[in-house]
Amino acid sequence: MTGVQEVAADVRPAATGPGRARARTVIALCFAVLVFDGYDLIVYGAVLPELLHHEPWALTPAQAGAIGSHAAAGMLVGALGAGALTGLVGRRRIMLLGVAWFSLSMAACALATSAATLGLYRALGGIGLGAVMPTAVALTAEHCDPRRRGRTNALMFSGYSVGGILAAALALWVLPAWGFRAMFAVGLAPLLILPLLARHLPDESATGTPPAAVEEGRAAAPRHGGSYAALRHPPHRLPALLFALISFVGLLLVYGLNTWLPQIMRAAGYPLTDSLVFLVVLNAGAILGTLAGGALGDRVGMRPVIAAAFCVAAGSVLLLSAVHTTPVLLALVALAGFGTIGTQILVNGHVAAYFPAHLRTEALGWTLGLGRLGAIAGPAFGGFLAARGVAPAWNFYAFAVPAALAAVLTTLLPARPGANGTN
Question: Torsion angle, CA of 100/101/107/110, rounded to 10 degrees?
Answer without folding.
Answer: -150
